[in-house]
Amino acid sequence: MSLSQDKVTIPGLRGMKQKGRKITMLTAYDYPTAMLLDAVGIDILLVGDSLGMVVLGYENTLPVTMEEMLHHTRAVKRGCKRGLIVGDMPFLSFNVKSELAIENAGRFIKQAGAEGVKLEGASESIVMIIRNIVQAGISVMGHIGLTPQMIHQMGGFKIQGKDPESAKVIFESAQRLQDAGIFALVLEGMPNDLAKKVTEQLSIPTIGIGAGPHCDGQVLVTHDLLGFSESAKPKFVKEYASLYPGMFEAVKSFKQEVLEGSFPSDEYSYC
Ligand code: KIV
């Protein structure tokens, strides 16, 4: 079954904002997940660096490498026809020098088939780097608020923009990023009112995660919404399914049946 419509494009996303049509974005790191999200008609497939924590077992996103990101982006590309594929630039792949940032952003497009890249942060140097990547002809999605690559500076995964000063920084960063040419902006981990103000201020779409209902779109980590593991989830995660108990029981049944010799029965054998 496929619920797909037309191919999602960057101008199309802006049109969705103008029409008040909410944008859906989910993470994908592999071929079957990309096929699933595309069949449902999810607008943006983000090959997030959350890959590091969700499927590679790292403690945080900092160790993720360009090679790992490209490997998984290629798999997503093979499973996705309609959705827009965005590759997440890993820590230190962009925030060192513009030349390296353009080269790495270009690898997502040329070697892995992504249609845009996402960069976390909005410091002066990052905004300059984003401007240079955009001028090189690569579409960039911004990401501000709770930016997991700054886990140590933030002292953990903490909600941002709660006091007037930090809210002002976020508000101004959003405008600066739009001026630098980004096509969409992820707002993560911030109060609803602030995300609403930012969304109203910008002509590009905002995509929220833990930023309330007023953003132009919403993103979640697919493994979280499917309940793929039993680990504790942040407040903003809604588990639409709890796959873990079913998967656990299935694997347990396989183990039991093999140990007792009841699998494979004649039904599953070439007698
Ligand atoms: O890496 C990621 O999955 C992300 C989203 C949660 C926005 O950056």
Structure write-up:
This protein has helices at residues 10-19, 31-40, 51-54, 66-79, 98-110, 124-135, 151-154, 164-180, 192-201, 222-225, 243-260; strands spanning 23-27, 44-47, 84-88, 116-118, 140-145, 184-188, 206-209, 217-220. By secondary structure, the protein is an alpha/beta fold. It folds into 2 domains: 10-240, TIM Barrel; 244-271. The longest helix has 18 residues, at 243-260. It starts with 9 loop residues before the first helix and ends in an 11-residue tail after the last helix. The site of 3-methyl-2-oxobutanoic acid (KIV) has 12 residues, from β6.
Shape: globular
Ligand kinds = 3-methyl-2-oxobutanoic acid
Q: Averaging pLDDT over every residue, what do you get?
A: 96
Q: Assign the structural class, choosing from mainly alpha, mainly beta, alpha/beta, alpha+beta, or little secondary structure.
A: alpha/beta
Q: What is the third-level CATH name, the topology of the largest domain?
A: TIM Barrel
| Distance, first to last CA | 34 Å
- What's the SSE pattern? HEHEHHEHEHEHHEHEEHH
The biggest beta sheet is recorded as: 8 strands, parallel, barrel
- Using the 3D structure, state the CATH architecture of the largest domain: Alpha-Beta Barrel
Q: How is the largest sheet built, in terms of strand order?
A: 1-2-3-4-5-6-7-8
Low-confidence stretches: none
Q: Count the strands? A: 8
CATH homologous superfamily descriptor of the largest domain? Phosphoenolpyruvate-binding domains
CATH classification class of the largest domain: Alpha Beta
